[in-house]
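Purpose: get a first structural picture of the assembly so the mutagenesis plan has something to point at.
Setup: two entries, given in the order below. No constraints added.
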Amino acid sequence: MITTGLAHHTFPLSRLLLFSSLPPLSSTLGSSYPTSIFNQIPNPTIFLYNTLISALASTNNTHIALSLYSHLLSHKTPNPNNYTYPSLFKACGSHPWIHHGLALHAHVLKFLGSTYDHFLHASLLNFYSKCGKLELSRYLFNQIQDPDLAAWNSIISAYAHGTSTCSDDASSCIEALFLFDEMQMSLIRPNEITFVAVIGACADLGALSQGAWAHAYIERHGLELNRFVATALIDMYAKCGCINLAIQVFDSLPKRDTMCYNSMIRGLAIHGLARPAVGLFNVMDRDGVAVDYVTFVVMMCAYAHAGLVDEGRRCFNSMNEVYGIEPKIEHYGCLVDLLGRAGRLDEAHEVVWKMPMRPNAVIWRSLLGASRIHGNMELGELALRHLTELEPESGGNYVLLSNIYANMNHWEDVRRVRKVMKDKGINKMPGHSLVEMDGEIHEFILGDRAHPRSREIYAMLDEMGRRLHEYGHKPSTQEVLFDMGEEEKEDALSYHSEKIAIAFALVASDSTVPIRIIKNLRVCGDCHSSAKLISRIYGREIILRDRIRFHHFRYGACSCLDYW
DNA sequence: TTAGGGTTAG
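Result (structure tokens, whole complex):
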């Protein structure tokens, strides 16, 4: 009966639920358990165990799968084999349950020694990458002599995903693209799964031409534009500043699921297109596509970026009232952000105190950011106190507070904050800007002179400075951290990575194409006002992606309408 | 007969 049930994926879970009440694997390994089903089967084979464990693991019943594995261990025979572990590692990786996975790894060594096969090896690689142990994954990958497609996909995905947990570091995405190159040289043909990872890496890097190449490859080689690939493409085009191409992909799909919609709404939101985002949400709702909690995260983002406070609030309230979705901490974060940015600091503060869960760092950072924009030092200090408890090592939080003081010319306080940072050995995350030019990605940091065309770039920076001055640009020096002289501050501003990137693009690119820049932090006020003017002076469209959203500079104005 | 690789938000 059990095997028949499995074949139809209607395995009677209720009969195995007794396993789920068992303690977790870490405390059960090697112990013996009374069980009903397996005790009723005389001499269950390892095949039967493996089949059940796999079915349980792939239906997200990790705990029961692990308990069944414990049951297997509690008997002398049969012994686990090569087929037993991959599904367990996969399930542990999806949570991820690192301690259970580590225990399993120890068991692999105990039961199989070093004789396990490449399937198991690759599943270990994958498990460690899901737990964020990229170096370990790479080590395991390097041990594989002739990696097959799945092994390549595992390692490319691992690197492509590396950036999302560490948004200051583009290098893991670049490594993903290098690995993809290597894979092609080894004559392994990529499939849809490879491209989901590759396109994801391009999205994070803002590497439009590589992303578009991947899209063309998919079409040329008849790969399927399935929902994974489609979502990745929509996301990539949106994050590379080509919202129209994202819409084109979205419109071309015969069927759209929740994730496609979420990705498209998110794309519209980061481009400040709140009205189309609301329109799409309504279509989604009308067409009976399930909305989920991510849909509301992205909708709240759309409202926040456009400053549509009351509508955003209504959207938040409708989650529970209309859709029966309980707001999570992310939604409260969006609400605080929405109110705070709009200057409704008291309301934002009230949300923080009244929310049903303990506010996390994201919430306090939103409040701190809002305090900075609206110059509320008291609230800023309060938010930072909570933030430093939760994230004692993060320099960005101190920088935000320091900016509040600098904005108000409280240089003594700026010095105090800087001293705390210095004493604690905390550094600000360095800002960098990426520009893609003819398929190559150029990275610039503050005051960067490492680029081969550095002389031309700095000559252009000088020229930009002169022309900005002629057009009446007054550098907004409030956001410079230190109480240096005005002239020095202006210098510090003019060598911000995004300005260097713009100068490089003016020097090196065809004057008819838009300048595309990806910045890892938020754009500063001075760079923002300079970019607006530069778009007018040089007649160039500048599309700048910062950590949160896009700015399209055209004819001296920005698509964010200076609200960010 | 049983095993590994993929999407959005934060």
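The beta strands of chain A are 432-437, 440-445, 515-519, 542-545, 550-554, 557-558.
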